[in-house]
Amino acid sequence: MRGLVLLLVLVAALPARAEFRGHGGPVKAIAVSPDGGRVLSGSFDQSAILWSPGRGAAEVVLRAHDGAVNAVAFLPDGRFATAGEEGRIALWQPGASRPERVFEGHGAKIASLAADPSGRFLVSAAWDRTVRLWPLDGSAPRVFEGHTENAVNAVGVLADGSAIVSAGYDGTVRLWPVEGGAPRVLAEFGLPQNALAVLPGGAGVAVAGADGTVRLVPLGEGAVRELAGGAAPIIALAVNAGGTLLAAGGIRGSVAIWSLPEGRLLRTLTGPGVPVWAAAFAPDGTLFTGGTDRRVRRWDAATGAHLGPVTPEEEEPATASDHPGARVFRACAACHTLTGDSANRAGPTLAGLFGRRIASVPDYPYSEALRRMDIVWTRETLAALFTLGPAAYTPGTRMPEQTVGNREDLDALLDFLEIETRR
After folding, report:
1. 252/330 same-domain check
2. Would 312 be classed as within a structural domain?
3. I need a surface site. Which of 92, 147, 381, 423 has the fewest CB within 10 A?
4. Could you report the per-residue pLDDT of 46-62, keeping only the tens digit for each?
């Protein structure tokens, strides 16, 4: 399996930072160890990073996936798992040089991962319409089917380990008993559900999605409660250990925090204004968030204070220019640099782009599908990429799907790239 490597990062003694910086792409997932001593993040840059909150530094960079690391989870015994866009789950021992085990079976990208609180199994949700249970005793995995749309976006395990809960693009929230019993649809909303958090003490689950509303769904009888979070889609949910705080991260970059069980909005955390894709509470109440700016941020959830300055991602001078193409390029800057150093970015450097053959930057882990293509980047081929979209023009790419539909914007982007990538 390509890329099955553990890259040890020897970090010199540095002052602790409020922000964890090291990922080369958007942070898609965050988990905190049961004792709060470690934080694990997964990113679009195909890596996971294990952090020491006390030192404010990375301990190790994990590479075991051929795509974005969309989900991470800790087990109660200190082991942890990472799950990727390619549909595999890697189980890691602390300090090991390779994953202890790799689970395979999903036919599409894994979107969510959770661990049984007693450490018996992992569960995953993927864009193949399935939820899967992976026993850690070596027995055969189990497949749960019932979601009617391809994307099952979120999964969790009840505190007693008796059942799995899931939410998906089909708008349903489903419960799957682990030991016998029929699966149930707990709720159906008719709108895609993106995120889920299991509430402690059997209080049910919180789910949220496309309409910006958080819904508290009981496991048995009772009405669904709604917490209005605004009109923007919610893409991350987290609940603290005591079940007294619920955090919701949105596509517009803010994080709302409610008190539970009353459901009162306490405060809204405002960061640099980029989508928040992941959130997790530590045992001491610290809230960790991750998003498009490639950073893991720390917040005091009790006061709403950001631990450290809220600074935007440093821009290359070119992207801060007043060239009209620079504005269009800023959507690309999270994954690509214009200089010769890709610096662990999710995408290869664009330096020397024009006249370069596709998939030819040294040491960048391109997919085999791209390596087999016969494309040379010119103004015409780049225009086709952004007109047709990466999935249609370069099948097998891991580039996020995006197009530039406005011809004036496209011409400005191409002009900008011609100037900046030839310097």
Report:
1. no
2. no
3. 423
4. 899 999 998 888 888 89
